[in-house]
Design goal:
The complex is a heterodimer of chains A (383) and B (120). Chain A is α+β, with helices and mostly antiparallel strands and 383 residues long. Chain A has eight helices and 19 strands. Chain A folds into two domains: 286 residues, Gyrase A, domain 2 (2-Layer Sandwich), CATH 3.30.1360.120; 80 residues, Elongation Factor Tu (Ef-tu), domain 3 (Beta Barrel). By secondary structure, chain B is α+β, with helices and mostly antiparallel strands. Chain B has a single domain, classed as Beta Barrel (OB fold (Dihydrolipoamide Acetyltransferase, E2P)). Chain B has five helices and nine strands, in the order E-E-E-H-E-E-E-E-E-H-H-E-H-H. In chain B, the strands form two sheets. Chain B has a six-stranded antiparallel beta sheet. Chain B has a three-stranded antiparallel beta sheet with strand order 4-6-7. In chain B, a hairpin with a 3-residue loop joins strand 6 and strand 7. The longest helix of chain B is centred in the last third of the chain and has 8 residues. Chain B is globular and about 35 Å long. Classes of the chains: A alpha+beta (383), B alpha+beta (120). Chains A and B meet through helix 2 and helix 7 of A and strand 4 and strand 6 of B.
């Protein structure tokens, strides 16, 4: 008998047993044994999310609480601003905001959500970057904040047009929440932190729930006929259609926020001439690119033919050019678009919408059109 | 005569022509197919050469020529509607027909009982 080496043992979320019970096909993802799909399959799970409501287990993601040691939220916000080019000080209580940790070159160490919980900041980070982020936070702001990686909480996402009806049947009060609102609520006696947000482009909620109550909450959601479990396979096709970056594919330490088209997340107060301009890692690079543009851009790519164009595919300016000009970073079949969808990086000169490029798939150059993102309009609850 | 490969293709010989497809087990593993690329008539394959591409939402996979031969026909119905392979993999979801170069290559493939043992 061979012992399974402990170093490679996969971690499990609190819903692991439920995934197996539901017939999920499991695979390793960021060190966790995660559901890729359930018996209905990626295509139907994707379409169900856009038509009704999909339930996702995203408990592998990191949940971090930053608690100001002297009780001042302004201290915590300003400390975190040392690491992100985002207005944290101006984030009102009960709101959350998208952000990214930058490195000295303006590259992205991770992208994250920052929530203002009134007496602490709640961060959601990528599973694959938890350890890196935790060290990064400790190195930069442990003098100001206690940094607590919350290992005892699960994270569920309920996404789709029926999500609000499903949620309000359990907790009527969440019906008044707007996109990016954050609220602590009791659901069946479980102390949850709910945000109106997600990674699909649909209206929906993300629910942080104590690990021991996660399975019961998931079962309660699944009892609603509008809700189906959705795995990481459809989570990926949904977020590509929504034009969102996946850390490690579309953004990493070698891509800047401006190259990635994430400049919308950098508020004026952190830009040149803002009250708290700069003072984050790589500010010189990022602020310069904000004003003068970046040498390359992340763009949407719509293949004109039916073949999916996947991550790693090289892009060419024409049918015969010997050297590629860029690369696809995410791509596949978009079930709601009913065709192939992709995104990738191209030089600024080729980044205008409708520019025609060629993707080399199996030794053939297929026409792809640069296009605006997202492929499927976002349907957030904004008002 | 119905035969199978370890790579989950099936071969049915009718009138000296080998009809090739992928098994029910293979389509289950791949999931809903969304794109299929087939060889054109006249293409010659050695046994084991990549002959077609199937893509699901998640990934692309190759289908191999189970035996050597020349393509005499490709099933354009599955190009137009890849879901046909999921719904009828052993029938209407066939991929292409090969003019058999060496009948002994067909004989050497697994029979259905052996294939069922392989997939458990």
């Amino acid at each position: 008998m061979t012992a399974y080496p402990a170093a490679t043992a996969l971690k499990r979320t609190p819903l692991h047993a439920l995934h197996l019970e539901m017939g999920a096909r499991m695979a390793p993802f960021a060190g966790y044994d995660m559901p890729i799909q359930y018996p209905s399959g990626v295509l139907k799970e994707h379409l169900h999310t856009r038509a009704a409501a999909g339930l996702f287990d995203v408990s592998h993601m990191g949940q971090i609480a930053l608690r100001p040691r002297r009780g001042s939220m302004a201290d915590a916000a300003l400390a975190l601003e040392r690491l992100v080019p985002v207005d944290v000080l101006g984030l009102p209580p009960a709101r959350q905001r998208y952000a990214f940790f930058t490195n000295a070159d303006g590259g992205i160490i991770d992208d994250l959500m920052i929530g203002n919980c009134g007496d602490h900041l709640a961060l959601i980070v990528n599973a694959s970057r938890k350890d890196v982020d935790e060290r990064h936070l400790h190195g930069a702001l442990s003098d100001i904040c206690a940094i607590d990686m919350l290992e005892d909480r699960a994270l569920l996402a309920l996404q789709g047009p029926a999500a609000v009806a499903v949620m309000t049947r359990l907790v009527p009060a969440v019906g008044s929440m707007r996109f990016m609102d954050l609220r602590p609520v009791l659901i069946d006696g479980a102390s949850c932190l709910v945000s109106r947000s997600g990674y699909t482009g649909e209206d929906g909620f993300e629910i942080s729930v104590p690990a021991r109550e996660a399975e019961e909450l998931a079962r309660t959601f699944l009892e609603d006929c509008a809700v189906a479990f959705v795995g990481l396979g459809a989570r990926d096709s949904l977020r590509i259609e929504a034009g969102f970056c996946l850390y490690g594919s579309d953004i990493d330490e070698g891509t800047t926020p401006v190259e990635a088209g994430l400049q919308w997340a950098i508020q004026k107060v952190r830009r040149r001439n803002g009250a708290r301009a700069g003072s984050f890692p790589g500010a010189d690079v990022v602020l310069e690119q904000l004003e003068r543009g970046a040498p390359r851009r992340r763009v949407g790519l719509k293949p004109r033919e039916r073949a999916p164009v996947r991550a790693g595919t090289l892009l060419y300016a024409d049918l015969s050019a010997p050297r590629s000009i860029g690369k696809v970073t995410s791509g596949g079949f978009g079930p709601s678009v009913a065709g192939p969808v992709a995104m990738g990086y191209v030089p600024d000169a080729f980044s205008a919408a409708n520019a025609l490029l060629f993707a080399e798939v199996r030794h053939k150059r297929l026409p792809v059109e640069v296009t605006e993102l997202p492929f499927v309009p976002h349907r957030y609850k904004r008002s | 005569m119905l035969k199978f490969t370890q790579e989950h293709e099936w071969v049915r010989v009718e009138d000296g022509v080998a009809i090739v497809g992928i098994t029910r087990h293979a389509q289950e593993q791949l999931g809903d197919l969304v794109f299929i690329e087939l060889p054109t008539a006249g293409t010659r394959f050695e046994k084991g050469a990549p002959a077609a591409v199937v893509e699901s939402v998640k990934a692309a996979s190759e289908v191999y020529a189970p035996i050597g031969g020349e393509v005499v026909e490709a099933n354009q119905a599955i190009v137009a509607d890849p879901a046909l392979v999921n719904s009828d993999p052993m029938g209407g979801g066939w991929f292409f027909k090969l003019k058999i170069a060496d009948p002994s290559e067909v004989d050497a493939l697994m029979d259905e009982a052996a294939y069922n043992v392989q997939i458990g």
